[in-house]
Design goal:
With 326 residues, the protein is α/β, with parallel strands linked by helices. Helices cover 46% and strands 16% of the residues. α4 links the parallel β4 and β5.
Amino acid sequence: MKLFLAPMDAITHQAFRNLVARFGGCDEYFNEMINASSLLAGGSWEKFYLLDGPEPEKLVWQLTDKNGEKMAQAASLLAERSGIGIDLNMGCSAPQIAKTGAGIAWMLKPVEETAAMVGAVKSALENGAKDGRASKRLSVKLRLGDEKYTEEKLHSFCAMLIEEGVQMITLHARTQKQKHSRHSDWQAVEHLALRFPQIPVILNGDVKDRETFDLAQKTAPHAQGIMIATAAAQKPWVFREIVGSKATMTFDAEELALRFIDDVERFQPQEFWKTRLQRFFAFYCLNFSFGHYFQTQMLNAKDNDDARARIREYFEKCPGDKSKLI
């Protein structure tokens, strides 16, 4: 079963993907979502969203926007770049995204409008194929729908997606308003995979270690992959744990944190440094003995040099946390 790194805003940029690759990586990396309108406008920050390291051949570009025409135009640009393909964000339920008409809003619009957008993106990918190469893969990441969700409605929506050319679907099996306190409905993933055996259906939600991976496989045996989000943000080595490498590995947790800051400075604009560090360390710090204290220290860091000083101070006080064996 394939393993996927989920797209996470302000997290799955190249600096973070470098950490995941350091521990053996995964089958596919989804980048943090790219806003189609911003990409087309050619803003100064967009080049950082287009970085494709460390394994360009495994990268999937995720697009978001409220405008279907701009989604197609952005797909045309991305079709010429490296990577596996384009993923359409129809799962983000954050109010600031959904209210604009993007993210999960595409599941709630008139079906004809969403179908037209998907078809236009598919055509853009096909038109972008050159020199006899196959077009980039088109996939969609979605949720169950709104609070009026029924399995029949979800399957009808997915049938439309497939008819318009979608080749893979990732299901985060929660409704629009369901929080992470409620367990993802893995059975819904299994039912979707059985209903559409002609494409890969990927399970997303609540897989955080080998035990939950095994349980997800048992619950949805016809899913062809599992996508991991926040567990990877906390433990960039989670894919190595799940694969069950026979060789143990020891690494320096302090050095890893410091290297991440170095890479953020290399691969992100200065305006993003603080938020990128805060997003990562909000999860990473929870691996340690005094995790919430460490987390608070890092979230309050004034700048990168202050963050480095706080990291060194923590591991000086807690030397037993410095070396980790996986």
